[in-house]
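Model: Ready when you are.
Researcher: Fold this.
Model:
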Amino acid sequence: MKKIFIFILLLLLLILSILRLYNGSDTNPPNSTFWVNDNLKIFLYFNNDSIYKIYGKLYNEDINDYIEIMSMYCRDDKIISIHGIFPMTSSLFEGTRRYRKNRFSISVTNSNVSFIKTGDVIVFNQADDLPEWALDVEEKIAEHYFGENDNTIEPIFISSCEYLEALSLDEIVGSYGRNVIFERFHHGHHSGKINEIKGRFTTIEINTREDALKALTSVRDIMNIESFSYAVEKDERYTHQNVFILTQVYNGIEVFNGIFKIFVTDTGIPTSVNGVYINIVDLNTTPTNSMQQARDIFNIEDVSWVEETKLVIYEIGKDDVRLCWFFNVDSMNPKDIRWIFIDAHNREKVMDSIMVN
């Protein structure tokens, strides 16, 4: 009788093991393993026991092209959310995940793309070697985030003989009325110098990028502008007026926060200017450390990613201007969205600012 009981018990355990294998397991896939779905062109790389990285390519039948993806967010032991990049999108689809030996699947519970339906099961198989399309995607993502990109900006230059007459406060008020307002605040702080003029501030009309730069020379004394090397673009987001954005450039490198905005009516009449000029003296603009060396300085959460990197000139404080690698860190968690600046010469983290709305 005892032998029969032991036999039945072992048989039940065997049946339960088989059912568990068939229905999937809560056990996570092994670390440092690749999983591939060739139909949708997605590959996954599992890098630890609970949070995962995803890199891949998802063919979008609606646009007859690929959505490139680099984000997989696990809210708990089962739910998984796939997001796209280039450009970043909201969740493409969500589902419950299941793992068993050599097989990983996602049962779709919600989809925001027409070619993946709720109820679909997307199956990934473990791969020792990545297919060619996956290698191409991995290389492109690595280049986008960590490549040594050319960050130089082509500015507009005007010679001193093209400068307009520098106007004084009294001359602007006398010419354009006492309703002109001069502000000495920048980002909510009293700056001690004028950073905004509300009202007409120049003698010319502004219709082109060159006009915008020339107009800025009218207020060079008032706003303490010492040089005029700027990248100028028209902000197309505005429909009821024209807005020109002038970004300060030094030796071909963007000066972070060295920006002026000029607002203009549809007929070319300037209505306001605001911004800050950053004084730079003999700054070495050849980085000693690469972008990747700067990236190695800091860590980010597994649900975060580096959305943008570039070489910039950054003003730390009064008379302290540095050449920095700038990292714009995005995240599924709003509290982890950050701007990070690493000194390109000594690798000092000079700023790590949480960008919470």
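Researcher: Now this one.
Model:
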Amino acid sequence: MLKNKILQEFLNSDIKIISQEKLEQYIEYCIYKNQNSRIKDEEGYSLSSHHHILPEALFDRYKDLRENEWNGTHLLYSDHYYAHWLLTESIDDYGQLNAFCAMHNKDMKLGRINESDLIPPEEFQKKMEEKGRKYSEWCKNNPEKMKELKSKLIRIRNCPIWKDTIGKESIIKMLNTKSDPLWKLTSGVKQSIKMRQAKKLFYENNESPLKGRKKSPEERKKISEYMLKWYSENESPNKGIHFTEEHKENLKWTQERKKEHSNNMKINNPMFKGETKNKVSESLKEWHKNNISEWKGKKHSNEAKEKISKRLTGLKHTIRICPHCNKEGGGPNMTRYHFDNCKENPDKSNKKSYKKKEYKTIMCPHCGKEGILSNMTRYHFDNCKTVTGIIRKNKAKEVIYEVKHDNEEFYGTMTEVIEKFNIKSTFFKMKLEDVNNDHKYISKYDNWKYSTIKKLGTRKSQNDRNL
């Protein structure tokens, strides 16, 4: 009778039941393992706990066990642990899953249960993962409750009593565990890998919450006050550390090291490489077109000028000797006009080296002669001597276009290109203006996706000539 009554309460509620068979097994186990009263050892320590068969969090009306004795059962600690495990297997509820995971760790630490009473570690790991998934779902579905929880946590952590007692103990425990070499080799490695994977997944789908956020002057003031207070009460962690001579030499920023660093940055820095370099330059050009620099039109105040002058007065540059002309000097002028840039440097060529401009060559379809674009359009194509009967009356000009399509190069006017490749004039203009390939009209010409049309020059119009 009692079993059917409890089972009916579960079935009539809004709780999602995973397995009714497991639920019946849970109710039978609680009734069968009931000790009817609290059990204690010889020293008076309790060996059992009073368990609610219908969970207290889900059935608030049966919370008081004095009025509802049928809902209470006295179970030994090991039986209590197993009953909670059966409950998590039978119903889908985050609260009961969280209670079981907490009991698994707590009862073991307090010595209430033995290792033999625990479920296998692989199964417990699955429970923990399930708990994490459900908690993340709950956070997404209840943003207001999450805000309340965060505000409560902040209030607790800002409480001075908590900081001096529980907070201090928890921080010490955390530091002790993280400093343990065994922890670093086992669970520490797993934790760090999980953290990296979680961060990657988060930043792939979301932007950083700190992106574009600027600290208010109040926040900056609080940070500065805290740091000043901390350094007034405590010594710097770097105090008393003496660098070796080798380390000091490595820290020196010599001219050779500067050159090495600049060369390495040019080779290894992604900002100096093809696509990224072009993207950065284009974005900066657009930004400077639409925005004005913060420092434009601003002038240094008299106080700032005095500070700069005080800092630079008495500053002596290291005197260096040029190995080519043996001239002595200091400052940036030596690097500008001497050393590698010295006039007497034999490796340096005084004559300016100009790169020869490379011109494209095109072929005349009438005489087969190849040459530079400007000369070829003037004396060949329609103006070629081999074409007979041409009488030039009008000096009107037509534009020549270069077309690269299906590994073929063609040079001609717009009408010649349209006739040659059988395309429409609207598509020709759009391709010439370099409209995005995702455009509805251009997408019809799939074979033209990687083709190009460029304007090269002009030639005399054929329409205004008499043959």
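Researcher: Key takeaway?
Model: The two ends are 114 Å apart (CA to CA).
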